[in-house]
């Protein structure tokens, strides 16, 4: 089985793999790293344009390291998981400071970069330097668990160890880049999560899951994803032509992005309920305000959370004291990086109210 697996996979890659991506075959570690960071938690179709924009704006790691944080965040806007962006910038600066601007060329040094885990380190080490490190991502887990009929949960420590050892054993050391690319592409286009193409699969005659009719049951995971619902009410406070915004600094989603005044509730709430909340009262203490209307509801789906947002248009006639907030002219709001839900709102904003 093992002897058949690797040659069959490489042959499929050579003769049949037509999956194209802008960074495929790339040998520049900076570009490989950028594509891998962008692709974590992001679909290829969505990440493609971002990758090209980043390469155009910052052709080298030194350019990226020298870029102002706000500009990098704005380019990242819409990709989500902003911790990735923050780590990416930190890693670029680490490469300039610790490695004199040269991308590190050993697995351990690559893994020492901020935001780079075992998978990304193996991808860069093999694709850029042809070092013998097997990648292990969702595609690889799926292909191996099905072909070898392994039901150890892939999110358990035992499972990770078992799959890592197997992936490393299957890796042909002289062809690590081609092999890693093959197995990831194979998982994406043939051994897909839903409706894998078993009828045309070059591994089918030896695939244990197919023989035992277990394809739909593998791979196994222990944890079920629990999705939390959060309700965000944004107070879009206007004084003259200015709107009040702040940068999110808490250890929560959307760190370093900007937002309006936020009131979060565990359930949907109406305006009188919001006005009765201590956080609302303390924001508007001794301040008379008008509520001019509300927006439609917006929904943003994250991996572990669903965010329901609504925007409430408010105005004051006296300059408010808003510690931690900055007053920004309405026409200049587009110069700040916001979460997708606020960007969507700004695109659709009802100009008569706001
Ligand atoms: S036969 Fe089906 S389940 Fe088995 S490796 Fe091929 S595509 Fe995956």
TrEMBL record:
Entry GO MF terms: 4 iron, 4 sulfur cluster binding; 8-oxo-7,8-dihydroguanine DNA N-glycosylase activity; adenine/guanine mispair binding; metal ion binding; oxidized purine DNA binding; purine-specific mismatch base pair DNA N-glycosylase activity
Signal peptide as annotated in the record: none
Catalytic activity: Hydrolyzes free adenine bases from 7,8-dihydro-8-oxoguanine:adenine mismatched double-stranded DNA, leaving an apurinic site
GO biological process, one term: base-excision repair
The protein's Enzyme Commission number: 3.2.2.31
Gene3D superfamilies: Helix-hairpin-Helix base-excision DNA repair enzymes (C-terminal), Hypothetical protein, domain 2
Superkingdom of the organism of origin: Bacteria
Cofactor: [4Fe-4S] cluster
Domain HhH-GPD: 38-189
Keywords from the UniProt entry: 4Fe-4S, DNA damage, DNA repair, Glycosidase, Hydrolase, Iron, Iron-sulfur, Metal-binding
Matches recorded under Pfam families: HHH (PF00633), HhH-GPD (PF00730), NUDIX_4 (PF14815)
Cofactor note: Binds 1 [4Fe-4S] cluster.
SUPFAM superfamilies assigned to the protein according to its UniProt record, in alphabetical order: DNA-glycosylase, Nudix
PANTHER family found in the cross-reference section: ADENINE DNA GLYCOSYLASE
Recorded family membership: Belongs to the Nth/MutY family.
Name recorded for this polypeptide: Adenine DNA glycosylase
Gene, per the UniProt record: mutY
